[in-house]
Amino acid sequence: MVRQVQEGLSREAAKRLRFVPGLVYVEEGAVRRQSPEQREQTLAQMETLLQATGFPYHLIHLEEALELPPSILQPGPERAGTSGPSYKEAVDSFIQQQRQDGDSGTSQPTPSTPARPAGPPAAPRLPAAARTQELLRAFEAAATATAREELLEMLRTHLIVQTARDRGYAKVMMGESLTRVAVKLLTNLSLGRGAFLAVDTGFTDRRHGDVMVVRPMRDYTAKEIAFYNFYFSVPTVIVPPLFTKRREKLSIHQLVERFLLGLQEEFPSTISTVYRTGEKLSPEPAKAHSEFHRCLLCLCGLDTYGEEELALEPTLIFEEPAAGVESKAAYIPLLCYSCRLTFKELGPLATLPPYMRAEGQRRICRAQMEQRPGVQ
Amino acid sequence: MAAPVSLQVEFGGGAELLFDGVKKHQVTLPCQPEPWDIRNLLKWIKQNLLKERPELFLQGESVRPGILVLINEADWELMGELDYKLQDQDNVLFISTLHGG
Fold first, then answer.
1. What are the structural domain ranges in chain B?
2. Which positions are linked by Glycyl lysine isopeptide (Gly-Lys) (interchain with K-? in acceptor proteins) (chain B) (predicted)?
């Protein structure tokens, strides 16, 4: 994807792209069973690669999710862009800006929190061991590989969106291929996220408000991308997969991948058919959901009204320590159907990142206050 | 009778993790009655190169779905897949497009 953006931005491009990109890499070695030395090596390789692009870049560690603000679980205010300058005006002012910069190539994103300039590589630093341990606790406490994968995806997305928000980026491009989108489609269906397929796998994902997530690579199969990378010598960095415990069953994500890829061997139109069916889905028009109608974790509109009819009751039994202590059960009304299932399979509240607990507690308290109007 | 065949066997996209992290292997396949083809090569790789967890690389006679095979930089689907007869100095590249596990 980065190579494609580079090509699109280059002077020779027929329809030259007109935006200022930055790159972000989330280093996840802690949960991929890498030793500190291996993590340093991955970081060094990644830094070399990112520097070579000439774009501003940000290397962050998954451990930084422990420091996310609770506000990440709220959509940000929509940008003034909708009532602001037209697209044509924006392009014109961009071109003028480029001319002023002497067409030097990379200009900084608008709010100039200067990203790391392309200088000599600083020695990559790993987070403190205590942070790594705290992060690992959350992942190790997960009862299933499926919940662990979902947790990883949540933390990574929140980190990336927060990074974008902090630095004034309006959009985030994710690199999911057609293959990965098709796998995600069926996986999410199996996880109970049928209501949100369009948002989870579509081209645009607007649930975070001010930061829009887009998936420009969703038209290209993994095979096409692999061949492209090979023929055009695109540098890559490989990391091991998310850790699993001994004798643990495979995650739904892994099962669906195996299933689809296996079927594809005999029926070569499988994956593209799944993808094209998914393409027909469109997100429902954005409603102004109050926080009481949005899922705490995935920010999608809650789909759990009339839950007595749904088969939710049997899944909501918890082993709770004592009443009065922060209980997992109190979080359930804040979550959509599939996040409830994931949440149930994650560890005790104390193992979850602080921002989730803080925002959850806040909403629980507000909901309680709303139910007792006389109390101030 | 097949003469010994010298090959460059390469792994990428994470497949190298199953081969001690080594991406490029120069191998010489010994003399044997049947001619060397990809099918036999895979058996040979299983016995001689694969360090762990063969089920992550092979499935039945073939490679696991999701692993691409390039013979002399061309998709093996154009070359006959498992039936392609290896020639001296061929290059066989295995690229994994799988996402873990």
1. 5-96
2. 101
